[in-house]
Structures are given as structure tokens and as C-alpha cells.
């Protein structure tokens, strides 16, 4: 069984990501069913991928339909309240950041329970954090957030690494979850606020032909 | 075991969706292998997703290779006969509508047999109806039909809801399948003919800053 | 158990595809985590799809984390050395060609071991060869190589068909693997060098209205 902290965070992450999916739907002026579809895809996409590759089928939301209901309700509420914030895109980016940090830790935790390999746990944390947003941006034809110049995948990676390392060091899970989440959110937040980014690949001139 | 009506409809849906995939290939002037690829992806994509998340692996077309053969043959026939209709895009939209209504019912039926939960059944109906077309449009770099202004996902949703509700009320499956299919097709058809659509999200001015 | 030749080729294919993913990341000027993500997606995508639909879960890279490590290391090396070649896009296309031919044979071999059906084996060969590159191009927002005018999917198809046919005829696996790989690589290479392509779909004028 998973401890309560992780389950609560997974629920929170589902709802947060569902909001980002619905906000993309609002930018495309879709109808309410479109909001529901993009909310579900974004909220459930990462966990679906994680469960499938770990062989945990039927996937969690088939066993617990309350997951789908939560993403649907949140997406529909967004349909009616999305006009309130001044800038929907800013909200989208920040909700996406919270969801990213949450799912990086939750995904790593689930994988640690299923396979007990730290590399797989970190990879699953990154994958379940990134996958929902990638699907959302592809289906909604947005510029993929994952390609953004500011720190993004790195934040999920750092959060998952901190969590897995602390668990391995014997730190209680609640504390490891908290510190992993904060690491991810602070890094991504630094990217959003100060445009913090890692060195990008800089194309340099190729070697002159004929020289070794 | 599934009853015969559903199996026949699944076959018909496979072939119809395969035609829409091949028509996208024709719009991109691909060669015959491209037709086969897009036909398979569109015809088998929805069912593959459904089987994977329900944990019904190996997926149905691995167990019954005749499914692949049917989509391949249909896609190759389309290569030779796609020039006949005056407007290929109109055919694409209508075939897609029939496939959507068919898979909404078939997907819900399969999920009802596997998990017996009405919410999951409806979600699976919508997902298996929409997924093949989403993949087709992403790989073929078309404007996703799922983003279209006219009723689309809602039609699949309505068809699946009608089917599941009737089965729950004790109506014989053949009748429930027929009524669910008609509901989906009529709604989507109304969208195509009269441009019927649900209220879209309308951006409204944000609240004035400083006011509650 | 799989024989050694296939395992070696799978490793080689993983690394080659990881390079192509990293080269796409370099074209988008991503940071090193972006290189790692695209390298993993491209290197592992085809095999993940194959394992999922065959029901071989947890998928191979969850059971053998060394697969992930290899794609990560290759992607990170590419970050530092991608500037050396004169034309990165040419390298991308040729590495992709080698990976395509390798995975067509490896995928067919794995499917033959799992289901023993020649049609499924050929389909899995094509799918695992094409899927990683399709994901790479969608996430990296490149023009999908699979839509390219020159022979692409057909090369994977031919390689898989040759391999499966030879195995069925009783030819030793090593030889069948070698000939299948050469068939795929030569066909795709001919497409790259001479622009060899199959007849494309040519839109022809529709039938005059009112005539049978």
C-alpha cells in the first residue's frame, strides 16, 4: 500500500494538470467536452504511461474511476471560471510547474514500490511528470512546454533524484516527498521568474575539411 | 465472449477508420506503404489504447492478425480508388463520423465486459473513438478533427452514454448498440451538415484589478 | 532466450536512435536534459510500443535499466560532440537509416519469439522501427521523416519480410538477421542517395458529375 501523503499529492497533481489541460482548451475556444478531454489527457496521461510500462494493468484510473471523475469535474469548473484570471497563460505555466513537481515525486514513489530500482524510479518520475503536458501540447497544438528555453525537464529530474536519494539514505518518506517536491518546484519556478536556464547547445563551426 | 453484433461493428469500424487514414495519406501524396501505415494506425489505434489500459494484452490485433490484414487491404484499395470521389475531404469527414459512432459503442461494450463500471465504459468508448483519429491527424500533420468547431467528442460521449444507460436499464444489447450508434452518428452528422456546435468558451474581460 | 546477435543489434540500434534524438535536440538548441529526454524517447520508444502490445510487461528497459543508461550516456556525449560533423542533418538521416534497418529485424525477431505469427512479426518490425522516429519528430516538432518522399517505411517492411521469410524457410537466424538488415539499409540508403521512391498517390480529376 502507498502511504497517504503520496496518494493525496497524486490527487492534487491530477487536478492541477487537469486545469492546465482545460486552460489550453480555453485558449483554443473549445466546447465543454473539449475541456473534459484535454483535462483528462493531461491529468491522467503521465500516470497511464507509468502504469503501462511498469506492467501495472489495468491502469490506476480504470481501477479507481474516481480519478476520472475528479479530472472531469475540475475541467468543467475551469470552463466556467477560466475568464477570472487576468492572464490565463501565466496560470497555465504555474499550475503546470506545481503538477510537474508533484508528479516527479509521485511517479518515482510508485516506481520504487513496483521495481525498487533507483534509475527506473527517477526515469518514471520524469516520464510521468512530463508525459501529460507533452500530450496536452501536441493534441492542443501548442508550442510544447518541454521545448521551452527555461529549466523544465531538469526540474522534474532534480526533484525525482532528491526524493530517491533521500529514501535510499533512510530519510522518512514524508520528508523525502516534501524535499523532492520543493526542489522541483523551486527550480522550475526559478526558470519561470528569472528565466533561469541551463547552457543550451550552441552550434559551433565544423572542423575545416581535411584537417584531423 | 462478445456477441456477434459488436464484433461485426468493430470490423466495420476498423475498415472505415482505415479508409480515413488512407485518405489523409492521399492528401499528403504518400506512397502505398504510407497508406498502409496510416490506415493501420487509424483503424487499430483506438482499440490498442483501450486494450492496453484495460490490461487485455496481448492486444486484440496481435491475437487476431486478420484485423491487421483487413486494415491493410482497405488502405491499399483506397490507394487505387481514392481519386474517384469529387471531394476526398468530405468523404474523410463522413467516414470518420461513422467510425466515431461505431467505436464509441464498441469500446464501451468491450470495457463493460472487462470492468463492469459504467464510468470506465463511457470513458473507453470516447477514448477508443477519438484516439485513432487523433493519431492519424498528428502523424499526418493535419488540423486535428478533435479541435473542430462542430460537435465531435460530444457525439461519441452521447453515443456511449446512451448505450451504457440502456444496457443498465436491461434493454437487449443489440437494441442498445443500435440506439447508441444512431445517437452518435446523428449528433456528429448534425455537426457536419448544419455546423451544429456547443457553446464555445468565450474569453471575457478579466476582473478590474483591485476589485474583489 | 534471445540469441546474442539480436541482443547486440538491439543495443546498437538503441544507441544509434538515441543519437538521432539528440541531434534533433541540437537542432532545437535544447539543454542537456532535453538531449537526454529526446535520446531516450527515440531509442526506447519503438521497443516500448512493441513490448506493450505484445503484453511483455514490465517493458524491457524497466527490467534492464542498463538500456536507459546507454541511451542517456549516448545522448549526453552527443551534446558535447554534435558540432564536429559538417552537416548534422545528413548524420541524423543516415543514423536513422541504420536504426530503422536494425529495429525492423530486431522487432520482428522479438515478436516471432512472443507470438510466432509471421504477419504480427512483420508488423512489429515495422512498428518498432518507425515508432521511435515518429515520437522524436512529433515532440521535437520536426517534419516527420516518415512522411518523406523517399523510401522509408517500405525499407523497414522489406527488411522485416526478408528476415521472417528466411527464418520460416529454415535459414539460420544469424544469416536471416544479416540479410534482413542489409535489405532494409540498402533500400533506405538508395532512397537517401538517389532519391529512390515508390509511385506516390497522384490526385486525378474526379469523374464528371452525372456520368456513371
From TrEMBL, chains A, B, C:
* Swiss-Prot/TrEMBL keywords: Cell membrane, Membrane, Transmembrane, Transmembrane helix
Q: Which Pfam families match?
A: Gly_transporter
Keyword Amino-acid biosynthesis included in the entry's annotation: no
Where on the tree of life does the source sit, at the highest rank? Bacteria
Where, subcellularly, is it found? Cell membrane
Q: How does it sit in the bilayer?
A: Multi-pass membrane protein
Entries under InterPro entries matching the protein: Gly_transporter (IPR005115)
Residues covered by the Glycine transporter domain: 8-82, 93-166
Where does the sequence pass through the membrane?
Answer: 6-25, 32-53, 65-84, 91-112, 118-139, 151-169, 175-197
Q: Give me the Gene Ontology terms describing cellular component.
A: plasma membrane
Q: Which PANTHER family match?
A: INNER MEMBRANE PROTEIN, UPF0126 INNER MEMBRANE PROTEIN YADS-RELATED
What family does the Swiss-Prot or TrEMBL record give for this protein? Belongs to the UPF0126 family.
Protein name, as recorded: Uncharacterized membrane protein YeiH
Q: Which organism is it from?
A: Consotaella salsifontis
